[in-house]
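pasting for ref
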Amino acid sequence: MSELSTLLFDILPLALGAAVSPTVLIGIILILSISNRPKLSGIAFYFGSMIILLIVAAAGILLGKGVAVASSKPPSVASAYLDLAIGIFLILLGIWRINKKGSDAPDKGRFGGKSKSSISDFIKYMILGLGMFAVNFTTTVLVFAAGKDIGISSAGFTDKVTVVIILTLITLLVVEIPLLVYFTMPERSEKLLNVLNIWMQKNSRYLMAAVMFVFGIYLMVKGVRVLF
């Protein structure tokens, strides 16, 4: 198996887990539903999400490179300790999430409001995308873990860039799919996205807790298998 294939095999589960983000999904649906310029606002939200995702991935890559260079142990061992720590963190986060009181639905007021200009709208929703992905800890942690694997990998620069692009595209499916539905089926999209929005608002807490537990266990097992 090539270095690229091995690296893809490592990060694909993390990318798919990172793509499960009910809060972000609810956010993009609200933008497309109530924004004065839904297409522009949706694209701006997408760019903001991409920026923060790339920043988090870059941080993980830098950590991975640092671990590979500085550790006296093989990179796989150092990586395993990090996976174990991240896995434990996700389990604790899942416990907190399932016991959290109050609604997980974002404040609708942030998604509408009077529009001053196209530029101000673009900046507003780009910042909103940055913020919503930044505080979406599950996605952030999983992208960081994927970045760490990329940084530690001995794959070449081109292969790593390819993997980062794939990681980005998969993680942002939560924004890309609603945008695609809205752009290709503008008349039917409101009904479809509204049904999805209602379901997500009812079940987002349990869905995210499940993702945290599943990937927490996955990373812990991944780490333990290397260490023991």
